[in-house]
C-alpha cells in the first residue's frame, strides 16, 4: 500500500519533481587562491555578480519551493559579502546547507559562527597529507591554515567537517595519508573522485592528470581505507568521472540546478549551456526551462560530442545561452 | 517541516506522493500517495495508532488489519534506513 521505493541515484529523473531537490550555488567567483585544478577558473569577481537583495530574493524562492538542500560554493564563498545573510536566511527556513570552502578564512570567530548555523556540513579542500603537495596545487594556499580550520571546527559541537581531496599527479600518492589525517581531525567524511577536465584543470591537464597505474593504486588504497574507517568516518569516492556522469545525465537529468555568481543557471558543469537567469526569471520558470533544455537537440548533440571527444569539456565555461 | 526525522532528513509532497531526502548521506527516497499521507500525518504529530485509525476510516472498504501492518512496515522502513531520530511517534 505505502511501499517506500528507493531512487537509485540522488536526484534521479528531474522530470518527476515540482522543483529541484538540490541547488549548487556559486555565490561568487572571487578566490584568494589560484589552484591549478580549479574547475571554475575562480579568481576575480564577475562584473555582474548578484547583489544582496537579488540573493535574498532567490533564497525566498528556494524556501517557497521547499528546496531541501543547498550547497554554497564560489570562488571562495567566505569572501562573498552576502555569505552570512544567505546562509542565515536559508537556515532560518529549515533548508540544509553545505559550504564548500578552501578553509583558509576560518578563524576562531568564524568557526563559532558556522557552528551556530547548524549546517549540514562544512566541506574543506585538503589536497595533501603534506604541506608540499597541497601547496604545489593550491597556489597561494597555506596547508597549515587548512589544518587549523579543521581543528577549530572540531572544537565546535555538531559541526560535520568533510574533507575533499582531488587526485592529481602532484598528490595522488598521498591519498592514504590524507585519509588518516582527516580521521585524526575527526572529519565526518572524506570525499574524492577522479579529476575533472574542466576550467583551469583542463588547461593544466597534461601535468595534472594521473596515470592509469596511479589511479589503480589510488582505488586500491581507497578500498582499504573504506574498510579501515568503516563506522568511524565515511570514505567516499564519487563513482563516475565527468564523462560517465554526462552520458548518464543526457537521458536522466538530475533534479538539481547549478547557479552561477551572476544568477545564470547552467545545465550541468561539463556543458556550456545556460538555461535560465534568476535575475529576470522566477525559479519555477527556470526549472521548467531546465527540464526542456535537456531535450533540446543542441544540448543532446553537443553532449554526445563531448562523450565521444572528452577534450571538448574544456569548452564548458564558454557559455552558450539556450 | 518538523518531523520525527533526523536533523538532516527533509521531505516534501509531490504529485506522485512524496520525496524524502537524507541530505547528510545524499540519498533520495520516493513514496506513493499513501506514503505521502503517512508522512503528512507524522508531520502533524500523530502517533502510529492514530495514523492507522485515520487510514482505516479513509479506506473503509480495505482490510483494516492490512492497513495497520502496512503502516507499521512503512514506519519500520523509515527507521531501518536511519531516517527517524527516535521511536517517539511509534505509539507502541
Question: Number of domains in the coordinates of chain B?
Answer: 1
Helix proportion of residues of chain A, in percent? 25-40%
Main beta sheet strand tally, sense and closure of chain B: 3 strands, antiparallel
State the end-to-end CA separation of chain B: 24 Å
Class from helix and strand fractions of chain A:
alpha/beta
C-alpha end-to-end distance of chain A: 43 Å
As residue ranges, the low-confidence spans of chain A are none
Number of strands of chain B: 3
Cα shape of chain A: globular
Radius of gyration of chain A: 19 Å
Largest interface: A-B, 26 and 35 residues
Describe the structure.
The complex is a heterodimer of chains A (322) and B (92). With 322 residues, chain A is of the alpha/beta class. Chain A has helices at residues 52-64, 83-92, 108-116, 131-137, 143-154, 175-184, 199-203, 205-208, 212-228, 242-249, 283-293, 297-308, and strands at residues 4-6, 22-26, 34-35, 69-73, 96-101, 121-125, 138-139, 161-165, 189-192, 234-237, 256-259, 264-266, 273-277, 320-321. Chain A has a domain at 19-239: TIM Barrel. The longest helix of chain A is centred in the C-terminal third of the chain and has 17 residues, at 212-228. Chain A starts with a strand and ends with a strand. The mean pLDDT of chain A is 94. With 92 residues, chain B is an alpha+beta fold. Chain B has one domain (9-80). Chain B has helices spanning 33-43, 48-58, 64-80, and strands at residues 9-14, 17-22, 27-31. In chain B, 39% of the residues are buried. Mean pLDDT of chain B is 87; it is low at 88-92.
